[in-house]
Amino acid sequence: MQWKGVLALALAAPSSALVRFHCSQLVTERLDPLVQPGSIPSTHVHQIVGGNSFNASMEPGVYDMPAESTCTSCQFSDDFSNYWTAVLYFRAQNGSYKRVPQLGNNQFTSANGGLTIYYMQDAIYEPEQKSNVTAFKPGFRMFIGDVYARTLEQAARYRQLTYTCLDTFVTRSPELIAFPQRKCKEGIMTSLRFPTCWDGKNLDSPDHMAHMSYPETGTFESAGPCPSTHPVRTAQVMYEVVWDTKPFNNLEWPADGSNPFVWSFGDATGYANHADYVFGWKGDSLQRVMDSPCHFKTNCAEYGHKMQSIAEMNKCTQKPVVDEDIDGWLPVLPGGFQAEYAPN
Ligand SMILES: *[C@@H]1O[C@H](CO)[C@@H](O)[C@H](O)[C@H]1NC(C)=O
Ligand SMILES: *[C@@H]1O[C@H](CO)[C@@H](O)[C@H](O)[C@H]1NC(C)=O
Ligand SMILES: *[C@@H]1O[C@H](CO)[C@@H](O)[C@H](O)[C@H]1NC(C)=O
After folding, report:
1. Could you read off the pLDDT of 126-181 as tens digits, one per residue?
2. What span, in angstroms and rounded, lies between the C-alpha atoms of 231 and 160?
3. 223 in ligand 1 pocket by Cβ < 6 Å?
4. How far is CA 114 from CA 227, 229, 316, 339, 341, in A?
5. What is the average per-residue pLDDT within 47-63?
6. What band does 344 get if pLDDT is binned at 50, 70 and 90?
7. Ligand 1 center to residue 232 CA distance, Å?
8. CA of 119 to the centre of ligand 2 (A)
9. Is residue 322 part of a domain?
């Protein structure tokens, strides 16, 4: 199996990368090549970052993302992957919706929206990462979360998809499973962590999740072994998305005190938080990053990894192929969704 070759390489090098970097907004529109390939439009609005070869089909194993891309909105210039999530809308008292924009995260404030990405080997934020991980391969993709979850019980299957109410721009706890039920002074951050154990065979699976698993002991943070069904340890991929809810704090909120934020597919509970990943790093560049002692993004260039400036990232954008208003005050969410609250 091919991954064994990659693993051998990984074992030959000292291993200590923990990278945290930003990707600016590539495009925001109704496309979803992972869950609804070929559909123009897909059912709900997403915000997408990464390589500009992103399109509605991206046939796995055939579509060469680094070769088809001419730029990436990510700081690592060899990363032509696509990373995306649904988008948030604010629901006004009169029932109209307005899209909540994103902000560049802490340390990336000049970025145009987008999201921050981590690839971690160990569940500590220390420079010294002792574990070894196997990088994903071309054609690899995954999904985490449940678009249909509307209860805590349904959401509990996905252990690390959370919301943080930003009292300051750098508030990082507590992490909540549902939408915060109060006004958050500096916005809302979503943190989305993918499972870290791969079956070593399948680049994808029908639900886009079964080829991946959490460690035997629960979450990545518990540092347990991978189950025998999914023996290959991968990096923890995590997204942080900062939603600029500040402008909506001055508008009228629901009189019953309920949260006015709604995902683009109608979930008003927050339990259906989910994320999509389509791997597209050039050649073995991700494995080389993970095998070098590169911490956050600050010293990665020293180890020969190609980095670009935030100004350059911001230039890599796509024109939406789906022509519709997603930003005005809208009577229904794009695709026809209305806010859905928890079942009684
Ligand atoms: C990771 O690889 C390095 C270099 O080969 C090795 O020294 C180390 O023991 C490995 N770590 C683990 C946890 O396997
Ligand atoms: C995606 O891009 C590929 C390569 O350029 C092209 O063959 C394909 O038709 C595109 N698909 C869509 C739906 O735009
Ligand atoms: C609904 O409320 C928003 C926020 O106050 C306002 O900007 C918008 O014009 C209103 N829409 C309608 C149709 O009244």
Report:
1. 666 778 899 999 999 999 999 999 999 999 999 899 999 999 999 999 999 999 99
2. 20
3. no
4. 33, 34, 12, 24, 27
5. 95
6. low
7. 15
8. 29
9. no
Average per-residue pLDDT for the chain: 91
Q: Whose CA is nearest to atom 5 of ligand 2?
A: 68
For the chain, what is the domain count? 1
Residue 187 lies in a domain: yes
The CB of 332 under 6 Å from ligand 3? The reply is no
From the CA of 93, give the closest atom in ligand 3. 2
The residue that leads in pLDDT, 316 or 258, is 316
Distance in Å, CA 296 to ligand 1 centroid:
20
Q: How many residues does the chain have?
A: 344
pLDDT of residue 124: 72
Ligand 2 centroid, distance to 319 Cα (angstroms): 15
CB distance 236 to ligand 1 below 6 Å:
no
Say how far residue 150 (Cα) sits from the centre of its chain: 20
Rounded mean pLDDT, 75-83: 97
Determine, yes or no, domain membership for 331.
Answer: no
Q: From start to end of 271-327, where are the E strands?
A: 274-278
Domain extent for 135: 6-315
Output the six-digit token pair for 63: 């579509």
Query: Would you say residue 333 lies in a domain?
Result: no
pLDDT confidence tier of residue 13, bands split at 50, 70 and 90: very low
Q: Candidates 132, 232, 233: which one to mutate for ligand 1, based on the most atoms within 8 Å of Cβ? A: 132
State percent of the chain over pLDDT 90. Answer: 80
Residue 222 carries which DSSP code? Answer: G
